[in-house]
Amino acid sequence: MFRKIQSIYVARHYYFADLRFYLSRSIGPYVFLAMYRFALIYNRSAALAYLLASLRSRVTETGLTLLKVNLQAIVANYFSANKLVSKNPKPSRMFDRLLVVAYPTPNRKGLVFIKFTETFHILLLDPTTVRRLLRDYHLVLEPSWSGYALPEILAWTAFAQTKIFIECAEKEDFRLISELKGNLVPLRIGSGDWVDYGATSAEVYQPLAAKKYDITLVANFNPIKRIHIFFRMLNKITAHKPIKAALVCANFGSQRLAVEKLLSLHRHLEIDYFVDLNTAQLNEILLESKYVSLLTLKEGSNRSLFEAVALNCPIILLAGNVGVNRDNVNAATGHIFTEKEIVRFFIGNPDPTKHPRNWGIEHISHGASMEKVLQAVYGFDYRTLYGQFFRNKVNSPEMAYDYEDALFNRKANHDCLNRYFSDCD
């Protein structure tokens, strides 16, 4: 009992993060809408901020209706505030967040991917440059996080005469963008749909005997990753049978000391703990895993879960997660379970029967995802792009080409984009 109380105290920031999420999803939309109506009396800008907060909590019919009524005012406020921001030279690193995958020709626009919501804001500080880019290129936006009711996303509706494509892994985000019925075109893909299957073509058909871990959690030290739930589930399973687990953390977030204290408090569990692995080391752990799990309640599309699919490892997604494309967690790739169902599943001593890599190659590999984008952007004529004017992109973890040559490489990408950014480094 004492250890349980200690664990709750050590993991208190994780419990607070869970509470914030549950309150946000349950009463958040209504509280923020009430604040919106009250703020309309004295401060319209504050009222619009509350409206967007309501939609980020959860998309509701009332919120959507009010968003459509107020969209122009939201965008106008955003650009008005941007005029007060000093337009410092944009960092060269920004070009790592923009990737030219098709060059323009006299008869056809090229194609540029733009990654991370913070990059959108940097670009939108200078709308004239954005217009120059739109003159020659179609743009595909890849936001950082689920919850698209953000000024730096909605501001792209200001370029109303030009279609701009936006990745939407989460159904709520797809619905929000679709309901605007404007120039933003939602695509049902996300950052997890760009795993480089060529880079994961090692020995992926491992025999069951080679699997060292029953379950692996890939996380970091941000409380949203809910590592405390991982320990809680393992305790419940271990009460019935032994289980071997791996916890792999990127060295990011504020709770590393808390996680290592939890490990100390749970020395009776069989957990191998890894921090800051490189890609090859992470792939080795995934290859040795029977299942890879994701326990977050809300985040972005999540790449590591689908890297496991590329390595032929079935996945388990926590039911109720917001952000991951649930269509990609299916009979071929894994399971969507509640915490209680995960515990029951592992008590039942499951050996994996799913081999998800082939499904992943066909549906969510970088090649399959690029075909979806090209068809949406160029229509049925997209196959004419294959050849010297087109290159696949991958997320590994930053955006990159699947391979480089004289036409498509980091320097060529920088030089091509630099023509549009006269104030760049």
Automatic annotation (TrEMBL):
The keyword Membrane applies. Keywords: Membrane, Transferase, Transmembrane, Transmembrane helix. The keyword Membrane applies. This is Glycosyltransferase, GT4 famiily. GO terms for molecular function: transferase activity. The chain crosses the membrane at residues 21-42.
